[in-house]
Amino acid sequence: MRNILKSLFFVAFLLSEGGSSTLWAADPLAPATTAAAPLPVISQGELQVLQQRLDGLKQQISAANNYNQLEGPQDRVQAFILDVDKLSASLLPQQAQLTVQLGVLGAAPGTEVAAEQADIVAQRASLAEQKNKVDTALKNLAALKQSAAELITQIAGIRRTLLESELTLGTHSVLSPGFWAPLLNPSRDDRQRFSFFIEQMTDAWDRVWAPDRHFHTLALLALALLIWTSGRRLADRGLTWLCIYRVPEGRLRRSALAFASALATIATTALALHLLFYALTRHAPLTPVLSTFSEEFEKTVYACALITGLSRALLSIEHPSWRLPGIHDQVAHALKRFPRVLSATLLLLVTLVQVCNATGMSSQIVLAGRGVTSMAVMVIIVTLLLRVGRVRKELVAANDPQANSTFVGVMYTIAALSMFVSAIALLTGYVSLARFITYEVVWAFIVLSGFYLLIQVIKDGCEHAFSPKHASGKALKQLLGVGDRRLDQISILLSGFSRAALLLLAVIALFVGGIGTTLGQLATNIMAILGGAGLRKFNIVPAHLLNAVLALMIGIWLIRALRRWLDNEFLPKTDMDPGMCASLSTLFSNIGYAFVILLTLSSLGVQWTNLAWIVSALSVGIGFGLQEIVKNFVSGLILLTERPVKVGDLISISGVEGDIRRINVRATEIQLSDRSIVIVPNSQLISQNLRNVTLGGSAQGVASLELMFPLDIDPEEVKDLLLNAYHENETILDKPASFVRFSKLSPDGITLTVTGYVGSPRIVGVTKSDLLFEILKRLGAAGIALAKPPASA
Prior knowledge:
Blueprint: H1 2-17, H2 20-26, H3 44-63, H4 71-105, H5 118-167, H6 177-184, H7 188-208, H8 214-246, H9 251-281, H10 288-315, H11 329-335, H12 338-359, H13 363-397, H14 406-428, H15 431-465, H16 471-480, H17 484-512, H18 519-530, H19 533-538, H20 542-570, H21 578-604, H22 612-623, H23 627-642, E1 650-653, E2 656-663, E3 667-671, E4 677-681, H24 682-687, E5 691-692, E6 701-709, H25 715-727, E7 739-746, E8 749-758, H26 764-782
Helix pairs in contact: 1-2, 3-4, 3-5, 4-5, 6-13, 8-9, 9-10, 9-15, 10-12, 10-15, 11-13, 12-13, 13-14, 13-15, 14-15, 15-17, 17-18, 20-21, 25-26
């Protein structure tokens, strides 16, 4: 019976899953061979191919003898890891499915239980065999990924070591004939390697320029050239038209025009480059040497396109009103030609150096190529600085306000010092150091210009999207139910956070990137910095950030909505006094905000076991700077829970007497009689002596008057008059009864004190005023005068 029920349950499971297995499960007499259709699993041959691919990368890395030769293998290792992740992701659903199916069948019964049917036994064996294969494949893929990750770490170490050795390597000075000898008279091995490269280029060209391929090759090359030249102009005009007629007028249109200009240059260059590569590789792949060269050449082209495109966007020679930075028109015209000259020079000289690296030429000729490149870039930058400096002097002489810019002066000084150090390095034989400095100056221009453009676009986009004058701002007002001021605050916050994030990325990019660094490499290096060991311990990943933001926003909205419901609907209908209602509402919001913070951290993936160092740091901070803040916070919680004072109480502390208006987490607001507010820290309300006049609601006010009469009066008559005035006043209580006390007897007169009680201390002042008016009126009617104060000596 147990086996039959198990078989029926398995059939029902397969029917719910659907597919071909459903058809098999519908027939209980199906043969055991069709018990489980085999799932596709990675074969051993495919794993061997992956292993061979990884071994080939290791060989390339071990054979590298300079810093640049490791950039291509690093990209290929990253691609290898992505391929392994894709294969692992494709196997995980199969593993889960097989695990569930085996769970349905359960473990094999013991010997004391009746034997299972043959088809169930065959099904379990087939599923177990498939699961073992999937588990083995996943383990092998995990081992390959781990090996590749270790390889990336080793690449970083090797690159760091090579960079340090190259920067400190001293060779011939550029003034020495030994520096130029490898270029003017290369060695036989270098000539052979160069000839081998030319032969491979010729063979690749012959393949694409075969008689039956003339037309297609020529058409692709012509199309690439057309896109690179005329296509850029058309794309620039099209995007400009789109920005002018589709983007609202204002700062957003200006930043969009600059961004469109840079995008047109970079996009058309990328498209032309891909067409060129397709024309050369559509019939046969490139050889390893040409493939390595093409990868490095592509990076150089992109760097040059960025220099040209960003310069054209920021200088905006043809339309000065579209210019984003505050560059004077004369300075912009002085800089006009330099970006193109610099891009062309880098494209030519760096390409030649890449040929040397790809073919494995001697280090002497590679260093010579670097030196020539450094000298050419240095000459261009120095000429640029001299020309800009001359224009700035003319503007300063003309008292132009745009000429005096601290930021421009700092950038100018840094560039001049960098070129000076680079010149000294070339003269003293530190060619790699000079090349590193000149490349870093160019890279700094690319990074700063690119991120400046992005910051302006995001800033202007936020201002436009949240402006109440535009449709987007009006829609947000209606959707969120907020006012214009709140929209401005949201816009400023988003813009500020975006600019701060971009500035952080720009600073990181300056240190982890360089000329020839691809966008993928830059993103990987930045994530390696931002996702370091510290953040990995917290388990914070980008995918969790959206969940955390949503949890924070929804949590705050819910707390505010619930507090409004408590204040306006629920608490007013209870029997609690207003002070208790206010305390409960404040306590609820404080606990709610704390819960939202915990929920946000949980959404980020923060593990509380990893917050021990934060607690330790807070304990030290509490002992110094945060002691008073924490003490007031804890005191506020005590006030809200024990309620020695509550909202509405009349208290007196340290010479301050007034009504409690609000009890916050850190301090309490006390409203004085003149409606002014005194903010008292909560710790004082707990630690100091405090007089709560209205605690418990049973406090009575004392209306006491002290009057001096002449010595010749009848005390009993005056006593009766005073008591009658008190008894007839509506606010004076019958119990305790009012009384008159003989306070003082002196040569100046008799002092009598009359005392009565009122229902609340808050009406003492008004009652005493009414009593004085009434008593003086009755004394005048009875002909009794008050004693005159003694004359001063």
